[in-house]
Each structure stands twice: as structure tokens, then as C-alpha cells.
Amino acid sequence: MDNMGRQKILIVDDSDMNRSLLSDMLEDEYEIMEASDGEEAVAILNLRNTDIDLVLLDLVMPKMNGFQVLTVMKERQWIEDVPVIMISSESSPAFLDKAYGLGATDYISRPFDVAVVHRRVVNTLLLYGKQKKLVDLVTEQIYEKEKTSSMMVHILSHIMEFRNGESGEHVLNINIITDLLLRQLVQICDQYPLSVSDIHLIATASALHDAGKIAIPYKILNKPGRFTDEEYEIMKTHSMQGAMMLEKVTKYKDEPLVKTAYEIARWHHERWDGRGYPDGLKGEEIPISAQVVALADVYDALTSPRVYKKAFTHEQALDMILNGECGSFNPLLMDCLKVSAPQLRELLNSESTQDSGELEVIVDEIGMHEELSASGRTLQLLERERAKYQFFAAISREIQFEYTVSPNMVRLMGSEVAERGLPELIMDPANSDQIREILGEETMQIMNGVLNTATPDQPIVEREFEALGHGGTIRKKVIYRVEWSADEPPQIIGAYGKIILL
After folding, report:
1. Domains, the chain, with CATH or none
2. Which end of the chain is more exposed for a tag (fewer CB within 10 A), N or C?
3. Whole-model pTM over 0.90
């Protein structure tokens, strides 16, 4: 029977006989995958947890037992989407309590009864299927509400920009920069206890930071030359004008979005040393929402063309801000700007404009396929990108790899992998004879040396070298990106890249 469209079950047991028995019971209705120990199971789940519908998990196994596998699944939140049925001859209350406490859904005892195995598998899959549909439904409703709310805020802000003569990208850029700086801020200190929802709220509300400019006379707003003192004083009133407009939205005045938008509109021109306007607030008197949007606004204003100036480069804008030429800002936010500078340039360069267009296409496509679940839609789009990547990889002489420290494994991809008959997964690659055969001892030493040159600020490494192969000297090029943890100091958690045979 064709496996297309069938649900996938991962059987994890160190006994070939047990795996064979369970496979025989279930293979007519389900696609079966197998793992002979806990480490192999975690490796498979790490790569394919979104594809697996159910895990049948033995308790007693070498290397990593069933409880340890459950612990990893719980820590990485796989257990929320992939149900687990424990299989064991042990049935004591303490065992069951521990298994259920770690997230196991059900339990099957040995020796196996065909009817019991079949019924519990069916029931578990039905239960999780219903839960997933309910979660998708709620997620879809929340997504649509947030999408509509964000859309209306951005439409209003874009209308103001058309009048203002600023780039239509300004609102989007402020949103991106604000989000980036706040995420960096919560990583480097706990002074501002902002949740993911708080960051999203501030980034969304930032779209209304210049709402008051709609009340500024057009001839002042779009004057190509320098303002007179009188014109500048009129221009400065836009922050209070925006705050007053939002204050008059009495029906929603207690909503967090409106409150945050008020803070930003009124105080995004305040400065850390108290020399800003309209109220001369100083330091932490300025809400963090207004502080971060103030910095984002200055950076984008510098790097964007205006009727009165050309755009400065990313480097020029950073130098001007860090040298205090644009007023004073929270030192912590200045640190965030410095750390985020490479990512900021990447997000806001010409390629990011293209990426945002592609994202809009994806959003439009998602909206056209309402019959798909929220997660299903996303996976479908990602699958298309993966298929394109695999096609290009298949026609080039290279080996792609994805390495993770925990579990310690490497996944191999590419045409050279298939030609050499190599496995997709290799555990403990540093001590693997297969890896040594592929690369050679000299190449492994070079790659380890290149790996050690990577830093969190410069995670991408590249090196060309010559190494001995079966047919003599072979030129190779290795390019990969090292991934780091959010710990302090950061630790290497993996890497991905490719080895090109030149």
C-alpha cells in the first residue's frame, strides 16, 4: 500500500523483535519509522517532529531510556504536538505516574495484544487530531484579529506618510527596528520585563508615532530647506497633536495598544539627557516604548532619503548616533544598536525590501487557502522552498550538512551523498569512520580550526584548501554558519553549510 497521505508512527525500541511485532500490527494502516535506541529517536524527532503523528516508546533502552526521551520532548515542546504511548512490561503506579507526568498520553504493556495496540493507537491519534483542529481554529481566529488590527494601524499610518512625503517603507522599518532592539534588550538585561506580546504590542503601536503630523501645515511638513525657528516650533507640536488625537479615542482609551501608542506619539522626541520635547522628560521618566521608537526613528530618518536630504549609509548613521550627534539615548539601547548592527543592515538593505515583498505574496497565498490549517499552510510553503533548495543542491558537486551539538549528530544532503551511498544521519560525527572517509583526517582538522574562528558577531566562516583524496589532491571549499545559544557567554549549539568539491 502506498504511504502517501498516511499518518506516521515512530516505533522506538532496542528489541528488533518488538519493533517487528508492532510494525506488523500497524503497517497496513500507517507509515512506520523505527529507532533502535533513545538517541536515534531524538535525532529523528529533531529533524522530522512535524512529520511524525505518534511515538511508541520503550522504557528500558541503552544510551537514552524512555524517560530521558520524554524529558527531551517536553523540554523542546515536541510533546505538545507529538503524542507518546509508552510500551513496557513494567506497570507499577510509580512508573505510570512518572510517564504521565512527563507528558505520555497512554501506556501499552507487553506481551502485546493486537486489539489493544490497535485501539489505543487509533484513540490517541483521534484525540490529538481533534485537539490540533481546535488549536488551529483558535490560532486562526487570533491571527485574523491581529492581522486586521495591524492592517488598519498600518493603513492609517501609510495615509499619513503619503501626506508627509516620507517613504512608504518608514512605518515598516520602524516596526522592524523596534522589534529587533527590544528583543536584544531583554537578552542583555532584566531591567525591562517585556514579554513577546509586549514587544509585539510596542512594535505595532510604533506605526502611529507620527500621527500628529497630519495636523501640521503641508508647506511646513514638506519644506525642502531648513526650517525657520517659527516653523520648527510648529513642527515640534506634532508629538502633542498625535497624543491628543489618541487621547480623544475615548472608546478604546484603556486598551493597551492605544495607551502604548499615546506614549510613543507624545514622547518619541524626548531624550535621555532631558533635552528633548515636548515635556523635557529625562532618563527612565521616558517610557521604554517611546525610548526605543525614538532611536528607531532617528536611525531610519538618517538612512532614508527626505525632501531636504539624501540618505546616509548604515555606517554613517551608526557613527552619528553613537557619537551623540542626534541627541542622547538610553546607554542600554545604544548597546543593543551596536550588537544588532549587522542584523539591522541585513534586515533593511535592498534584499530585505525584496524579502518583504515575497512575504506579502506568502501572506496573500495563505489567505487564498482557508481550507488548510494554519500550521499546514506554513509547512506547505516551506516545503516548496525546501524542494527548490534540494533541486539546486542535487545538480551541484557538494555535500550539505546540518550539525547539532545536542543530540550530537550530523545530517548529510546533496548529490555527492547519494552517489557515495552515505546515510542521511550520522551520530557522534567527530568519532565517525564514515565522516573521516568522506573528509579525510586533514580536512577534519582544517574544519575544526575554521569552526574555532567563528564568533557570535561573525558566525559565517569560509575556507578553501587542498586535501588528499582517492584520486590524488582534491580542492575543496567549506562554507558554513555557526549557531550560538542565548547564554552568557554564548555556546555553540550547531552549524549548517556545505563542502564544495572544486
Report:
1. 8-135 (3.40.50.2300), 165-348 (1.10.3210.10), 396-501 (3.30.450.20)
2. N
3. no
